[in-house]
């Protein structure tokens, strides 16, 4: 049997799984009698475990998904959350016990409230401006694995494409301004009608571009009048999806020359991590009361502890005098522990007195 550890929430699932797997062994031991007798779990409690384990497995599956290296960018967060919400909704409908439905409903409701996820696929809950500017949605679009944005409606996807065009245009304008302000930029000299070239003839009008056989037979090519950044965006949307196991950063490294403007935008959004800590520790409780007491130490008391710890050997050597080195070593550990416990208890009492005041 696995034992639940309060500091790691994943161990709760391991405990429930092992308990269900060895149910007949546990029941036979508990019902076999003992001194003192231990009551077995009721049938409703076993059923509650069976209905809660799939929901806990879904959460563990999401944490494992976000722990993989290709899913480190923030682009994988929204597809993962919508998948978890969909699975929890399905498991919620299959539950027969009210306690299990309440637990799974609270899990799903808290996740939807935190991330503003709709109850159905494609349902928009966020406001329009906030959704279009969200790094989560933009990162998912710039990820070649999730660029279809199946969790959004077609109208929301089209508006997002327009928002990406605006970002690309702003990025191009910033690049042109940086190029114009840089050292060594070309200087254009415009000579007016009354300049030094009054006697020179006016420049000839530009000749019309030569039409190809495709233009003559099929008409004007619409891509010729399309801006370059818009062409890159349309080609990226038409690009086939890559495998979900592929790293989006490696994909953009290979496509940087083909989509230079989009690659710069993807570098900006895919650099955001999906989580700041490992997912298995994201919801962990405090490790121990001792660490909480240690965290309440004031800076001056921490300096005193470090000072005494560094000089403890010297102090013990002075106190021991001519005694042997073995005896001095034996008392050093006890002295350090006594000193640390005294300071920690003193700091805890001071902290409690401040709270009471």
TrEMBL record:
Highest taxon in the source lineage: Eukaryota
User: What range(s) does the HAT C-terminal dimerisation domain occupy?
Assistant: 233-311
Q: Which Pfam families match?
A: Dimer_Tnp_hAT (PF05699)
Enumerate composition-biased segments (Pro residues). Answer: 200-209
Residue numbers spanned by region Disordered: 189-214
Report the protein name in the record: ZBED4 protein
| Source organism of the structure | Polyodon spathula (North American paddlefish)
């Amino acid at each position: 049997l696995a034992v639940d550890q309060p500091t790691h929430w994943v161990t709760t699932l391991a405990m429930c799984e092992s308990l269900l797997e060895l149910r007949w062994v546990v029941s036979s031991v508990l019902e076999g009698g003992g001194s003192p007798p231990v009551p077995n779990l009721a049938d409703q409690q076993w059923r509650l475990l069976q209905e809660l384990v799939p929901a806990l497995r879904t959460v563990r599956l999401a944490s494992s998904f976000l722990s993989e290296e290709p899913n480190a960018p923030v682009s994988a967060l929204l597809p993962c959350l919508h998948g978890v919400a969909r699975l929890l909704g399905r498991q919620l409908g299959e539950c027969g016990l009210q306690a299990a439905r309440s637990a799974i409903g609270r899990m799903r409701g808290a996740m939807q409230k935190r991330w503003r996820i709709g109850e159905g696929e494609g349902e928009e809950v966020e406001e329009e401006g906030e959704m279009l500017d969200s790094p989560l949605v933009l990162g998912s679009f710039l990820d070649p694995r999730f660029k279809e944005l199946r969790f959004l409606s077609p109208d929301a996807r089209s508006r997002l494409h327009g928002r990406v065009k605006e970002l690309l245009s702003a990025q191009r304008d910033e690049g042109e301004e940086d190029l114009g302000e840089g050292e060594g930029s070309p200087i254009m000299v415009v000579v007016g009608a009354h300049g030094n070239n009054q006697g020179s003839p006016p420049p000839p009008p530009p000749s019309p571009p030569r039409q190809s056989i495709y233009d003559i037979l099929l008409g004007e090519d619409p891509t010729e009048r399309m801006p370059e950044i818009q062409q890159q965006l349309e080609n990226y949307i038409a690009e086939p999806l890559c495998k979900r196991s592929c790293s989006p950063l490696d994909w953009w490294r290979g496509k940087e020359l083909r989509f230079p403007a989009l690659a710069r935008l993807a570098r900006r959004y895919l650099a955001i991590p999906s989580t700041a800590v490992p997912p298995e520790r994201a919801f962990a409780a405090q490790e121990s009361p001792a660490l909480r007491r240690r965290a309440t130490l004031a800076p001056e008391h921490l300096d005193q502890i470090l000072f005494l710890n560094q000089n403890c050997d010297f102090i013990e050597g002075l106190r021991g005098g001519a005694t042997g080195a073995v005896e001095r070593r034996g008392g050093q550990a006890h002295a350090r522990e006594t000193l640390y416990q005294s300071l920690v208890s003193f700091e805890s009492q001071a902290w409690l007195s401040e709270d009471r005041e």
